[in-house]
Every structure is written in C-alpha cells, then in structure tokens.
Amino acid sequence: MHLLRIHPAAHLVEDRGTALPSAAPEPGSFWWLACERTELEARLPEIQAMLQAVCGAPLLDLHVSDLLNAHIPSTSDYTSQYDVMLFHRLVDSGASDSPAAIRAAGKGGTAPPPTPVLQRVRTQPIGFAVYDQLLLTVHPPACPLQQQFQQRLETARQVPEGRPGAAKLPHSPADLMLRMLNQMVDGYLDLRRVMTRQLDHWQLSLLRPRAKFHDWSAVLDARLALHQLDEICEDQRGAVQDWIEAMDSWPDDSGHDRREHELLRVRSRDVLEHIERVIHHVRRIEQSAEAAVQMHFSSQSNRANDIMRTLTTLTAVFLPLNLIAAIFGMNFEFIPWIHQSHGFWWAMASMGLIALALLVFFWRRRYLDRNSLR
C-alpha cells in the first residue's frame, strides 16, 4: 500500500508511505492510494472508514467484490459519489519476443528466433475507484504499472516546473486514471510489432512450396488467443464508452471545471481511439492468418495437381510402348520382324519415335513443363 498527495498547481508530489489519510487534502490537491488486492481485502474496514472520512462515501459491497475479483472483465460503473473502472492490462511473460527484447536486438544483439508469442499473452485486471479528491487503485502483486507511475511522479517532482522536458502533473484523480489507462493500452499497441513478426514467420513457412509445415497446433492456439484478445479489447472499449457517457452527467459549476471536463473527454476519446486501433489490428491479423492458411492449402492442392498431371502424362507416353512390347511378347509362331536380324532395332526405333512424338505433343499442349517435373 502506498499513499501520495499530488498538488498539480504547486508542482508537488508528497510521499506519505503506507499511512492512510485522515482528512481531505487541501484545495487543489488530491490523494492517490495504491494497494494490492490482498491488502484491500485484509484492511477493508480501515479503508472503508478512511473513504467515509475523506470522501464522504465508502465503496459499495458490489464494487468491493468487483475490485477483489481477479478474473472480472473490463467494465465501468458509477454512483453519485464515485466512479469505478476495471481495466485489463497486458502481461507478456515471454522474454525473447517482448518489445524490449526486440529493441535490444536492434542495437547490435542477436535477434531471437520467432516463437508463438500469442500463447504467452496474459492479462490482469486493475481496479480504479475515482472520487473527487482521491484515487484508489487496486493492483495485482508487484504491478509494474504502479511502480512506473510512481517513478514518473517522483521524476516530475524533481524537475522544476517550466523547465523544458518537465512533465505536467495530473490535475485530478480522473486524469491520473486516464493516463494509466492510456499506458496500459499502449502495451497492446506495442504488441502489434511482435504479432506481425510472428505472422510473417508463419506466412513464410506456410507459403514455402517444398517445406512441410507441422506447427498447426501453434497456429490454432494463436487464433484462439487472437479471439480472446479481441474479446478483451471489446470489453475495454465498452468500459471506456460507459465512462465517457458517465462524464456527461458531471456538473460544470464554473468555466474551470468545464475546461477540465473537456480535457478529460479528449483524453478519454484518445484512449478509446487507441483501443479501436488495437481491435482493428487484431482482426487484420486474424484475416491475414486465415488467408495464409487458405493460400497454403491452395498451393498444396496445385502442387498435387501438377504432380498428378505429370504422372498421367508420363503414363500416357508409355502406354503405346507397353502395347508394342505386349504385341511382340505374344506366343505366336509367325510375327513380323521376330526372325529378322534388325527387327529388335526397328522395334526400339519405332518405340523411341512414338515416345518422342508424344512428349513433343504434350510439351506443346503444356501438359509438361519444367515446374511440373521438379
């Protein structure tokens, strides 16, 4: 559990450690309380009492059960006092095909061989309870997103405001939540490069004419993973759309509030646009994978047809030769050329001429070519 007090007007980020706040922050600032799912469950009465004292309303039991559920899909809900957002972040347990590994390989390292990265894609839900002056985030254990944003805020506190490169602090709990959502969606966008690389590897393997493709189980698992990823992104899009609709009911008491709400709407639409880009890319990869599989079977079918055409043509060439050999193999006493000294060579010459004529005929009709003889 970690508590931060963020004061964007004063460019201040105060680290309060693990102590829970006992009162509302001063005007212009807000609290960010980040805890793990097990900590929320263990200290739930204490956290509920803190929310009642600081924000005037504790979490509903239904929302508490949602925040403690590690398998709940992305969703959004709201009350008159707070909003709840549950959003799945991407967990890629693979190291060789991760975006960081690819960037390291591009700096002079050895690129790892393509592996079915989609078999290792996992997601974890992160819960947000957004009050007017407090943001409660519920993370899985050792969540890198929480550590990354804490480091960002610490860095922003050390850089004086107005200096080039200084980062702007979030002006409200909702703004901080949207920044974290955007960071999670960017993880899905970074995965596009890895998925495209894996698909290119499979396409080359599938369309190689003489290679035998045996990794069908990996292709099937990847298609199932893409379907699952598409469902996750659809849930995320629905959750963000519900959040945008809920923002329309927020009161605008002043011009400053209207401007902040408009900035939140712009950031929310940006997150939604990023999610739609991920959905579009996932569906395009599904279509490309399906097209590669169909092209593979079409290529194999065409190759089988070429082989059968070549064998049929060669069989047709040798049919008259077998007929001649069968005629001269009859057990009749009187057969032309059977008792002549040059009969064998005349028979061989006629058989060769017939075979050559048939080969030329089939070649001109394109029944035989170099590709079909390979």
Mind explaining what this structure looks like?
The chain has 374 residues and is α+β, with helices and mostly antiparallel strands. 58% of the residues lie in helices and 13% in strands. The chain has helices spanning 37-42, 44-55, 61-68, 99-106, 144-158, 173-207, 216-247, 255-328, 343-364, 370-373; strands at 2-7, 12-17, 30-36, 75-78, 83-92, 121-130, 134-139. Strand 4 (75-78) and strand 5 form a beta hairpin. Helix 6 (173-207) packs parallel to helix 8 (255-328) and helix 7 (216-247) runs antiparallel to helix 8. The longest helix has 74 residues, at 255-328. Mean pLDDT is 80; it is low at 94-115.
The total of beta strands comes to 7
Helix proportion: 55-70%
Distance between the termini: 68 Å
* Major β-sheet profile: 7 strands, mixed
> Structural class from helices and strands?
alpha+beta
Provide the spatial order of strands within the biggest beta sheet.
Answer: 2-1-3-7-6-5-4
Radius of gyration: 35 Å
Mean pLDDT: 80
What percentage of the residues does DSSP assign to strands (E)?
5-15%
Low-pLDDT stretches: 94-115
Task: Write down the secondary-structure element order.
Answer: EEEHHHEEHEEHHHHHH
Helix count from the secondary structure assignment: 10
Bulk shape? rod-shaped
